[in-house]
Design goal:
Elements (H helix, E strand, L loop, with lengths): L1 H8 L9 H24 L5 E9 L2 E10 L5 E10 L4 H13 L4 H12 L4 H16 L9 H24 L5 E9 L2 E10 L5 E10 L4 H20 L1
Antiparallel strand pairs: 1-2, 2-3, 4-5, 5-6
């Protein structure tokens, strides 16, 4: 990226992110892709779910996709994965697993609500299923694993970064500040931005435990928070 920018404009990047940052962005792409597929599928009454398998370097590679009868026809990839075997049952299992692991925006919002209200990730699926069954008499077709809800908790952070980024770039007047406290002997700091809207709006950039309690530690955290927001928003 730095070489491309420098070659085209003569100016390099002010900051070159680490490989781990780009790995995070690659994960974010998968999250956004899942949301896109989920939103598209729930709005369509007629679609075809299928797979396309091949062998590469002795391994069974399978692509699960869904085709929609739009004009022109639209095909969306749900997942590409290396399977343990090449039997029909392996491909069918992959198809079912990926289909049920593609969640609509509504499902995610329900899960996000549980996370916001401090429901343990190990219990979210059970709580959602119990509430749905109790109020409608119908349960979930599939209860995701706790690791799936842990992933959704991470997604909330990504979406939060994007929301803050969108809001900040549209505002010409804002106040960036932090609020620190000590909890169980650790220095906890919250970086936030306040906007002079009516009523005033405050958005949290990040909450973290810092190594120390000096001003330099808080200033460093403030800069890191801005950098994280910038990277997520730019992605």
């Amino acid at each position: 990226m730095n070489a491309i920018l420098n070659g085209l404009t003569g100016v390099g990047l002010d900051f070159v992110p680490s490989p781990s940052t780009f790995s995070q962005m690659a994960y974010e792409m998968g999250v956004l892709d899942d949301i896109q597929v989920g939103e598209t599928v729930v709005k369509c009454d007629n679609l075809t779910l299928s797979w396309d398998a091949t062998t590469l370097d002795g391994e069974h590679v399978n692509e699960v996709h869904v085709n929609l009868p739009t004009g022109p026809p639209l095909g969306l990839i749900l997942q590409i994965a290396v399977l343990a075997g090449g039997a029909t049952s392996d491909y069918v299992c992959h198809l079912k697993e990926r289909w049920y692991n593609t969640y609509s925006a509504g499902f995610r919002k329900a899960a996000y609500s549980c996370i916001e209200n401090q429901v343990l990730v190990a219990s979210i699926g059970l709580v959602m299923n119990a509430i749905l069954n109790g109020l409608t008499g119908v349960g979930l077709d599939f209860v995701p694993s706790p690791s799936t809800f842990s992933q959704m908790a991470y997604e909330m952070g990504v979406l939060d970064d994007i929301q803050v980024g969108e809001t900040v770039v549209k505002c010409d007047n804002l106040t960036l500040s932090w609020d620190a406290t000590t909890l169980d002997g650790e220095h906890v700091n919250e970086v936030h931005v306040n906007l002079p809207t009516g009523p005033p709006l405050g958005l949290i950039l990040q909450i973290a435990v810092l190594a120390g309690g000096a001003t330099s530690d808080y200033v460093c955290h403030l800069k890191e928070s801005i950098k994280d927001i910038t990277i997520s928003y730019a992605a």
